[in-house]
Specification:
Shape: globular
Radius of gyration: 27 Å
Family: Belongs to the binding-protein-dependent transport system permease family. HisMQ subfamily.
Structural class: mainly alpha
Number of helices: 16
Largest sheet: none
Number of strands: 0
Order of helices and strands: HHHHHHHHHHHHHHHH
Pfam families: BPD_transp_1
Protein name: Amino acid ABC transporter permease
CATH class of one domain: Mainly Alpha
Distance between the termini: 41 Å
Strand content: under 5%
Low-confidence stretches: none
Membrane topology: Multi-pass membrane protein
Keywords: Cell membrane, Membrane, Plasmid, Transmembrane, Transmembrane helix, Transport
Length: 361
């Protein structure tokens, strides 16, 4: 039989211990790479000295608005305006309340990060913490003076919008993902149509619709704050994106997992929550993280409906006539806050990927 090999293949030599010059060949190998590297180095060589001079050599760290005119970076402006950028137009006498909300949300996030804390107690702590955070911001209880949602702003609004839209959007997205996999055509088509509409319409358009159409469609006895309308929009949009990500993860779990769990006598809810969903989330952790980061950044769009998040607070603070409108410094600060949040989420996701991969070995 000619297709049966009777002579063994010779053993291959072990790989060389020398490191290849991959980095050198990437930067200078070939004409295109060499040209791109030279252009990049030339841009840095010409731009970096001017940037350093603007930021440090000519930067203003003390003084007032007059000291910043015809000077470099006006860092003293951020020192004076940082409270407004971070907390908006919240009453100054009650400024401890948004600070406490930010600290509480940060503490809950740090507590939740170890996998040993993923239990019902932590989930209950998040529920209590979110209720307490909203109560602190709104006031009107325990002797706290009431503060309308229109006076909220800055970092607390960004964090609350992000956490609440994720908390409501994830289970809703899971329900839509299960509906899109339903055997009933009506449920499948309705869920698919809702998801496609929410993904196909820009978030800004949905925010405008919620801001201007909701008062016309709802009864006069029901009046919703702009913050509540924006939260509803972000919840629905995040649910639509979560739906498609989770649906891909559910399709990646073998059908035999469902059948084996059901053969063991597990209820359908236990099969989904204990057996299927953990595997599905593990498979789609990177796109799930990307969706969370998109939701975080989308909260900056609330400025179009008159809410004071970080970006809109930064825009308002630039209108002070006593200062020379330092746009770059203000938006650098806002970008740094968003970067820290998003980078922290990305690094934690990478840590989870490595940890879960090690657990599977």
């Amino acid at each position: 039989m000619n297709f049966v090999q009777t002579i063994p293949e010779p053993a291959l030599a072990p790989p060389s211990g020398r490191k290849t010059a991959g980095g050198f060949s990437t930067l200078f190998g070939g004409g295109a790479n060499l040209l791109a590297t030279l252009v990049f180095v030339a841009a840095i060589e010409r731009g970096l000295p001017h940037l350093m001079a603007w930021a440090f050599a000519h930067g203003v760290w003390q003084g007032d608005g007059e000291a910043c005119r015809d000077a470099g970076a006006c860092w003293v402006f951020l020192r004076h305006k940082a409270p407004f950028i971070l907390f908006g137009i919240y009453p100054e006498a009650q400024m401890w309340r948004p600070i406490a909300v930010v600290a509480m949300l940060a503490a809950l996030t740090l507590w939740t990060m170890p996998r040993a804390h993923w239990n019902r107690s932590t989930l209950a702590a998040w529920g209590v913490g979110l209720v307490l955070a909203v109560a602190l911001m709104a006031g009107g209880i325990a002797g706290l003076p009431p503060v309308p949602a229109a006076s909220w702003g800055g970092l607390p609004v960004t964090l609350l919008m992000t956490v609440l839209s994720l908390a409501f959007g994830f289970p809703l997205g899971l329900a839509l993902a299960l509906a899109r996999r339903s055997a009933l055509p009506l449920i499948r088509y309705v869920a698919g149509g809702l998801v496609e509409v929410l993904r196909g319409v820009p978030v800004v358009t949905l925010l405008f619709a919620a801001s201007f159409l909701a008062p016309l469609l709802l009864p006069e006895t029901i009046r919703l704050e702009n913050l509540t309308r924006a939260l509803g929009v972000f919840t629905l949009v995040s649910a639509a994106y979560f739906c498609e990500v989770l649906r891909g993860g559910l399709q990646g779990v073998a059908r035999g997992q469902w059948e084996s769990a059901q053969a063991l006598g597990l209820r359908s809810r236990d099969v989904l929550c204990v057996v299927i969903l953990p595997q599905a989330v593990r498979k789609v952790l990177p796109p799930l993280t990307s969706t969370i980061i998109v939701v975080i950044k989308n909260t900056s769009l609330v400025m179009v409906v008159g809410l004071f998040d970080l970006v809109s607070a930064g825009r308002v603070v630039l209108n002070d006539p006593a200062w020379p409108m330092p746009y770059a410094e203000t938006y650098l600060m806002v970008a740094l806050v968003y970067f820290v949040i998003c980078y922290g989420v990305a690094r934690y996701s990478l840590h989870l990927e490595e940890t879960l991969e090690e657990g599977r070995r």
